[in-house]
What we know:
By secondary structure, the protein is α/β, with parallel strands linked by helices.
Amino acid sequence: LxxxxxxxxxxxxKEIYEQPIVVAQTLRSYLRxxxxxxxxxxxxxxxxxxxxxxxxxxxxxxxxxxIGKYWIEQMARLPxxxxxxxxxxxxDPVLGPGVLGVVVSQSGETAxxxxxxxxxxxxxxxxxxxxxxxxxxxxxxxxLLLPTHAGPEIGVASTKAxxxxxxxxxxxxxxLARAKGKLDAAAEGEIVRHLEESPAxxxxxxxxxxxIEAMAxxxxxxxxxxYLGRGVDFPLALEGALKxxxxxxxxxxxxxxxxxxxxxxxxxxxxxxxxxxxxxxxxFEKTVSNMHEAMARGAKVVLxxxxxxxxxxxxxxMATIEMPTVHPLIAxxxxxxxxxxxxxxxxxTKGTDVDQPxxxxxxxxVE
Length: 367
Ligand code: G6P
């Protein structure tokens, strides 16, 4: 991958479009298609001795941690804590043997995350790192390096690193599940097949770019935006809101759909667009019922769902974004695409500096 913009106006767009390739590239080093297994690099410790997982990261990488909590708890039945790195050390977290400390970082140099890693190591915790820069400080210091192969990410707002981090987090979750005896070979084979489908599904999501560009002016005109999602789509809602804040300077908040009635519903009127992330799956109906509560109060909704979801609930929405029908495990990797594209096109509509947003740095090396 060369470090130029190719045919794109901005690095961010180029990096969004690279996702089918770099996610496939990342998965290639974790999937064993012949054995129908998900493998990790060689390690010096035994995953079956892990009793608890502590994930620490900043910004977009911290949302990968939150999604990892859902996955690891579901698949491996291990308790998981997730912290933003700037809070982690100062609350004197409970650490000790049996803990796997996981840092997630594109750069491998973010000061707070690096300090958190050193804090965990000093407490005798076994550490792993989902890291994109293999020569970075964190990559050198973790006990187990779990590389992402996103290639250089230049746009300040993280995009392709995020989806690659999710792919590796899924691989870690599966390995913990197997080590803890919670996953049989047939179930693992299913997961391998779903993960293998993700690059094509990301590609299918990219095909809706034109539709997203066409609706960007509606969001660009808003002062505030609310993002809603349930389950793993709640951290994705946080990521959607962060992307809008970072590059389009629109105040946006991500909320767990069911939490909306405990506060943010008071903000809703016709001027606050509501973006609802609702892939098909066990939580779809609940999310849609939260969406209808908001619509009853005048909310203008953008619904992101698959064909069946849009057929069922898209009729009343102001706009819809159709995603391919995917297994819930890979939905976060696929639904990340429209929220990235929306933030990008809103920023371009507003004329902001997409690759170098004001006040932000690609890698924050001070606390
Ligand atoms: C900065 C970047 C974000 C990134 C965060 C964590 O704030 O602008 O895009 O998510 O740092 O960076 P890291 O390199 O640790 O993933």
